[in-house]
């Protein structure tokens, strides 16, 4: 079993929240409303830190995109974010 070092917490946490918000998923709101648990939020942070797409995320965030674009396929939290998108 191969172990991968986790990336630094702060850059990944910031990008996790920013990419979720841009895609229309508010993680803090979802946590307060009980749509995700603290353990699920923590797991999302860990998935982000274990992924190797920090630079790709930065490029995606800098690109001119419409409001609430689909989460990119390379995102380790794509399915979670898509499930939390605000409706309407």
Q: Describe it for me?
A:
The protein is mainly alpha-helical and 88 residues long. It has one domain (9-82). Helix content is 56%, strand content 0%. It is built from 5 helices and no strands. The longest helix has 14 residues, at 9-22. The radius of gyration is 13 Å and the shape is globular. The model has no long low-confidence stretch (mean pLDDT 89).
Question: Helix and strand layout, with pairings?
Answer:
Layout (H helix, E strand, L loop, with lengths): L8 H14 L4 H6 L5 H13 L3 H9 L15 H7 L4
- Terminal CA distance reads 43 Å
Poorly predicted runs are: none
Please identify the oligomeric state: single chain
What is the residue-mean pLDDT, rounded to a whole number? 89
Sheet with the most strands, sense and barrel status? none
Give the number of domains. 1
